[in-house]
Amino acid sequence: MFGGKYRPSTFLTLTLDTYGRVDKHGAALDPDSYDYRRAARDAIHFPKLLDRFWQNTRRCVGWDVQYFGTVEPQKRGAPHFHAAIRGTIPRSELRAITAATYHQVWWPAHDELVYSGDRLPRWDNHHRAFVDPQTREPLPTWDEATDPDALTAPAHTVVFGPQVHVKGILGGTEEAGRHIGYLTKYLTKSIGQAAGLDDTATARQREHARRLAAELAITPCSPRCPIWLLYGIEPKGARPGTTPGHCKGKAHKPEHLGIAGRRVLVSRKWSNKSLSDHRAERTAFVRQLLDRAGVQPAYAVDDGPFEWETTKPGDTDVPPRTVLLLHAINQRSRWRADYDAAVLATTDAAPDDRSATEGAAA
Ligand SMILES: [Zn+2]
Prior knowledge:
This protein is an alpha+beta fold. The chain is 33% helix and 14% strand. The chain is built from nine helices and eight strands. The chain has a six-stranded antiparallel sheet with strand order 4-7-1-3-2-8. The chain has a two-stranded antiparallel sheet with strand order 5-6. Strand 2 (67-73) and strand 3 (79-86) form a beta hairpin.
């Protein structure tokens, strides 16, 4: 246990790779050689890369790492990620995990536009599918195009850039406050504003933003994205009203810079206590009370180990629902009776002890 308010934490910033040289405003010095395609795809798949990063981190350090983080755009328009991690992880370890983390996108290849301008796939009522405008042949569906036999290589692989910023900090200090400030600084601004795209933007910045937006407009954002039709693939859930190339997804909107997902990412157990912490505390308290009162439970308390599994329809060893419910009610009322008996037997117990158990055995 960490005593007091000085709790060690780690502040981490993860960045995507470089796509070409930029000026001090983050605009490409040479837009023709800047890799807008990779920038657009990396931005769209960034959340998946972060998921993979936390998975790898937990596996590597061996504990359930808790974090609070925000996704923010850099001036160049690429997302980066700031996070506060509870506890300390050595810098070298975080660097190694970052370098080893990647996410492969097993989508059909989408490097060459197959349809554009007036030549677009159209819905065919006879086939109930999108067809080629000339041959009237149905396009491959998403499932056909992603069949493991058909897909031999990932369409894209996302990796982090070499820059990893790691800082160990004691919680409750002035320095910690400053770093928490970084985490939340831009949340009230739109992504475009946070990237510096306002009235003061230079001509080069505007051109940079235009190029990135143009690439995002032809980069599919999900298996359901109607942009797939431009690459000759019928997206999941295509309907007669689907317009080839027109996706309402946030990722394609110029002001979102490909950042469509949540901007605040928090691990499930970030708050100081998890539900199971509370549950374990309550159980421990009730057991202490029963012990002190000398109440012997009339039933065996089996602490396991157990292996839990979800029941499936057709399992033969699952008792009927009514039996399970009656059993649970019976067990609860026996627990309640034991608990009440213990409270009676220990009326000299400190009152604050007892108030802490309100509802504990309910
Ligand atoms: Zn889309």
